[in-house]
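Final paragraph of the annual report: two paired records, presented back to back.
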Amino acid sequence: MSSSTSLSALIRKIDDITACTVDSTVALARSIHEAISRVQKASAEVVLDPSVRSTVQQHIKRTLSDNHYCSGAGFASHIESTAATKEYWLLEWWYKKDNGLSQAHLDLDQATQQRLDFRTFEWFKHSPPAGKAYIHGPYVDYICNISYTLTSAVPVYYNEQFLGVAAVDLLVSQIEAELLSCAHPDYVILTNLENRIIFSSWPRFRVGELLSPANSRVVYQSDYFILYHYQN
């Protein structure tokens, strides 16, 4: 197989991972918005309603079941304190485990939630253009999996009020396995747009490191990732 043919196969796989992830996150945000908007006088507090929360859980679990690549998915919300409610952090998060789905229970402990404070997280703060997601990482996710992770996020609004963020996690190890399973040229390196390494076919370059573009040629770039071919 020629280098150009194997490079095309690798790029198709990167595009497929990206499209599936972004589409899943956008769809999850839309489904959560619809679940909230069905409630009369919808507001941030409505995410605490048991029936709404149950519906949100169903959408999260469907996202995990439908997307081969993602390892976890959920909805994070910060509710400001009002005369009627106390400040509240909500993390409705589910993840794949042992060929099934499990729920993270961090939201049961408000003291833990307040120490986490989603408002400081990059994936919680950014608002991507309509129809797109903001992808943060690679970073070590110390909350859920203690592994290098990419998080795809889309904010959820109702009547221009920010309600929270729908998010989907990809394990970098899963991305690596997917990319190594298809033909690829030697010395290719996938980074985010800040040149932080996500995948490398050459052990000299490690996940999480910053890549110096010197001696590297860009062979592919999207709204989320850059693929380099290192000139050894």
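The closing record of the year follows.
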Amino acid sequence: MLVGVTTESAATGDAHVVVACPDVLDVRGTTGRLRRGAGDPTWRWAPDGAWHATRRGDDVATLRLRAVPGGVRADAWGPGAEAVLADAPGLLGLLDDATGFAAHLHPVVARAHRTHVGLRLARSGDVWSAVVTAVLEQRVVGVDAHASWRRLVARHGTPAPGPAPAGLRAAPPPRVWGALPVWEWRTAGVDAQRSDTVRRAAAVAHAFRADLTPAELARRLRTVPGIGPWTAAEVTSRALGDPDAVQVGDAHLPHLVGWALTGRRADDAGMLRLLAPWQGQRQRVLVLLATAHLGRMPAYGPRGRRALPLR
């Protein structure tokens, strides 16, 4: 899967790998699900590739992904370069195992699967950033959560090493998040409940590792007051590429699933019943339906207030 690792000049990367990929792989669609809004300072799409600033522990790295004959070339800079390159296949969705996925059980799922055959479930490997972004997205609309993330990372993150695009930054480590003063949170639009949850999680962040199973990571996350099933599923789906994560408690997902599969609204219990035939692959169904925009209900009358996701 990985073809060659070399040390080079700063112009082309401290190190690089070429990852052999199938021609149908949708790199942007797969990795784009990890970006938290168009202005996410940890991601940048540019003509010369997709740029990502991240960290592994205290080591920061810049990663650039670009298509080359036979696959995707990943260049990396910074002290975390080798670790990030080792995670490149997971980030590209190449560790995603869809064996046994029975898309044919429903024509809508089958059609979405055919249309988006190159879409994979990415595994970011960055558990802590997934924890923070998921907590920030509790009970608020996505654009507000993304704005909070953007401001906090821009102010307290680490500039991306190497020849990264201007403004690209890696998110702060847990100790920085845990020490942010109250006014920083409030200026970024984060209420006390969410900021306190991040601080509590930061105190035990060492327990949230990428080598855990999704079930064990979810169990550990849920020992933190303020982290429930919705947040845990968000983290395992993004950080570990969990193919079965279901964000129970979301304000939108039950209606997406219900409308796409039955033409009617659904609640959490109804969503779980509808997804039961795909036990083990339920996150894959959710991603396909959302990507294909198959869960949109027709609008009747004036648009109401946006619903907020629960924890």
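The radius of gyration is 19 Å. This concludes the annual technical report; the extension proposal builds directly on these records.
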